[in-house]
Amino acid sequence: MAPEKGRILLHTCCGPCATTCVERLVPDYEVILFFSNSNIAPEAEYLKRLEHAGRLAQILGIAIREDVYDHRAWLEHIRGLEDEPERGKRCEKCFAFSLARTAAMAGDLRIPAFTTSLSVSRYKSSPTIFSLGRAYQAFEAIDFKKRNGYARSIELSRQYGLYRQTYCGCEFSMRP
Ligand code: SF4
User: Fold this and answer.
1) Structural domains in the chain, sorted by start
2) Nearest C-alpha to atom 6 of ligand 1 is from which residue?
3) How far is CA 136 from the centre of its chain?
4) Cα 105 from Cα 128, distance rounded (Å)
């Protein structure tokens, strides 16, 4: 009999990014998606991304949990950094917000490990994400953008018919 796999909570920034992560994690883990994205605005966009993360979970037959959506709390968290460029200090605080939520949920659910799909994106610095994640014992620093992870996420998203957004998430990342 194969040994039982350990559980891992995957902070899921969106369905497309999660595709690569799940593909790489399932040989070793039982994956549970955690949609925690209070950074996303407007709410209609949040709901659209949530719907497609749910679609991915359904296609792959894995569990998904949704965090409370509290964009006001997120705005408060990044206050003063609204004009920062993408990849700057606001993004660092944004990552910290989602990682803290995911660490707390992993603790509540007694899931021994967690990681994040944020490292898939070529627009996001993996070393920055990892330095924040290392504040938590349960954090697994996995660089999903390695081995063409981003290209693979596009390929799989097309295959699964997932919506791919045109901006990162918050109102400050919308291009005119
Ligand atoms: S641009 Fe993206 S990572 Fe940066 S603060 Fe906005 S939502 Fe977060």
Assistant:
1) 6-173 (3.40.50.620)
2) 170
3) 16
4) 21
Cα of 107 from ligand 1 centre, angstroms: 25
Q: Ligand 1 in contact with 170 (CB < 6 A)?
A: yes
Each residue of 131-155: b (16+ CB within 10 Å) or e?
Answer: ebbeebebbbebebbeeebbebbee
| Model pLDDT, residue 149 | 98
* Tokens matching residue 13: 């920034």
Positions in the chain short of pLDDT 50: none
Does ligand 1 have an atom closer than 6 angstroms to the CB of 90? yes
Contact 49, 12 (CB under 8 A): no
pTM higher than 0.90 for the full model? yes
